[in-house]
Amino acid sequence: MDRVNKLITNIQKPPRLSIERCVLYTESMKETEGEPMPIRQAKALKHILENIPVQILPHEIVVGTMLPDPPGAILFPEGVGLRIINELESLPSRETNRLIVREEDARILREEIAPYWQSRNIEAFASQLMPEIIEVLYTGSVFVLTEFAGISHIAVNYPYLLKRGFRWFIEESRRNVVELEDNGCWDAPKLVFYKTAEIVSEAMISYANRYAKLAEKMADEADDERREELLRIAEICRRVPAEKPESFHEAVQFVWFVQSALHQENYEQGISMGRIDQYLLPYYLKDLKEGRIDRKQAFEILANLWIKTNEIVPPFDSLLELYFSGQATNQALTIGGIDANGNDATNDLSYLMLEVTKAVPLRQPNVHVRVSSKTPDSFLDVLADLIAEGKNNIGIFNDEVIFKALRSAGVEEEDLWNYSTVGCVEIAPFGNSFTSSDAALINLAKALEYALNEGTDIMFGYRFGLEIKKPESLEEVIDAFRKQLAHIIKKVVKGSNILEYANASVKPTPLLSLCIEDCFEKGVDVTLGGAKYNFTGIQAVGIADVADSLAAIELAIKKGYSLDEIIEACRSNFNGYEELRSLLLNAPKYGNDSEADRYAKLVLEMYCEEVSRYRNFRGGRFTAGCYPMTTNVAFGFMTSALPSGRMQGSALNSGVSPSTGMDREGVTAAIKSACKLNYEMLSNGSSLTVNLDSGILGAKGKDVIKALIRSFVDLGGMHIQFNVLNQDLLKKAQEEPEKYRWLLVRVAGWSAYFVELSKAVQDELIARISCKM
């Protein structure tokens, strides 16, 4: 633990805005004007990996920093990086997620970087193709399209890479080029693909060799113990990732070199490590058998890897901070689950990785645990104990339910068992899929607002929805909602497809394309559909708010109120309609195992049916998900009062969780309600957050949480995560943030330090904490 604690101190300082990658990338792109874009991108990555400053931090045994002097934020000017230009002066002092900005760096960004990229980035390319979508998008109230930033949500096929090494890619790329030329097949796209594969593979080897040289140099000045470690690091870096690893330490270092390089090529969100306890197990067992490693050494190596994922934070401007609060990069890893024969695959590494998670109190990585009816009690005991202690950075996924969802999305039986998680709560076939799993988020409550107001946005006064007549009955409300929702989804699909075309045109990804099976074999970039499975995931936000509203309308009409009165009450934010609001608030609510749950199921199925109608730019499917990031708070700011009794500007519900404060019957009822939803249609994932007061849990917390997990599996839930917190503690953290710097909370599929969340998100989390069991 001594080494682990020292490694943690390496990154416990204020993050800075790092422009090193940005400068090198721009230098290369200026030099390669006129060359094919894939070649330009490959050369740009090579230029970065061969020139970005390298350093080995004190006590490290897994090396490779994502940026000099971590922690910090990497800027991607080709995506949305330039949004932050107008806030450079305020970044060091803003309320949350401050970033240190050097004066000279600010000058370079304004005078040298921004002028070049303003007309060359993804947004500039895509915006001219969808002006009518931009008009709605820029209100921030109806939907968010994330692929303006780039495409990166993916689980890297590390087993595929570990079995080959990057020298193999160089040799095979050259062989493919010769074969194409000798056969007289001038397939230009394939020739370009294999040339880029050779460039980035050579860059990966050069990158590792730079660390080998640095380690050797540092060894000359180190004491005996550290000298031995540094020489071993140099030896490992000379070998991987050029060759296949032969030891556990080499395998982990291989993974990290690829992970850190991918974060130089791609926007930093959701680049995930897949089923890490499965593909690292052979190296671990072999080393144990041969006496090259013991459990303590393996623990330290893994802890070093966990800590490395915390070196970067996203450089969000103030608006994006509202939608994606908490500075997470969502590097997920998956443990547990079953194997190809349907047997439980939990192993010693699965347990060891939970121990590492307990010892590393940081927000990254996202630790995702696959469970099933076959998961052993001993593993659930360790898992539940960890959660009961307040380790709020774990998500739990139900294998049996997820198999059904992936099957419905067209995933073949042979690929179901090996699914992985991506980013927050997304699910994907492991290693042969490119799911772009967080491409968009949609405010379902806006569709209801439009349904009640003839397509008019009450908050902005514009008609963004369809112009259809005002409904006169609950049935007409539901029909109008369906039509408005279809209208919004159609715009989102068009925008997403244009952005995928823009990414393929402006930002192909040569290195990422080596990391997904089938791309190299086909000679097709992953942005063009090289993967076996090509999905685009879009998320519903606010299903409980819509469901609660429909249930409330039903009750109010039964009590003699007209639909016109309900609509007018919402338009006036219930001013003068206090008695009606009281009735609406006390109507049945989703999350209490009541009749309102059928409306949640109905709303979600409407959404999923509409999403599933469409195909994406890469020839695959659009897939539906239900999780919000923190857009439930941002969307809520811009949504009028609803028939549920919710006031204008209040946060919407999170994922498939009940609306805040509406889970009146306790945790068990909330889980029962959530398990009534049709998860077979949610092939992009969902998030159910259970908030528990640590004071109420008491000494039996582990047993309570274990029972809740078992119930969740038996009832057919898809995903569940826990926040074990205390309202008084959170309020103290608001008042004295400096004393609670490392207080972790689960937000909506990722973990964040509570004090780095916006005030609005903090307030919403405090309100969520349940006192009922």
UniProtKB/TrEMBL annotation:
**Has UniProt tagged this entry with the keyword Cytoplasm?**
no
> Which InterPro entries does the annotation name?
Gly_radical, GRE, PFL2/GDeHydtase_fam, PFL_dom
The UniProt keywords, alphabetically, are: Lyase, Organic radical, Pyruvate
List residues, modification Glycine radical.
749
CC annotations in GO: cytosol
- Which GO molecular function entries does the Swiss-Prot or TrEMBL record give? lyase activity
Start and end residues of each PFL domain: 1-647
Q: Identify the domain of life.
A: Archaea
- For the keyword Lyase, the answer is yes
Q: Which Pfam families match?
A: Gly_radical, PFL-like
Residue intervals of the Glycine radical domain: 654-773
Gene3D superfamilies, alphabetized? 3.20.70.20
NCBIfam families the UniProt entry points to: PFL2-3 (TIGR01774)
- State the protein's name: Pyruvate formate-lyase
The organism is: Archaeoglobus sulfaticallidus PM70-1
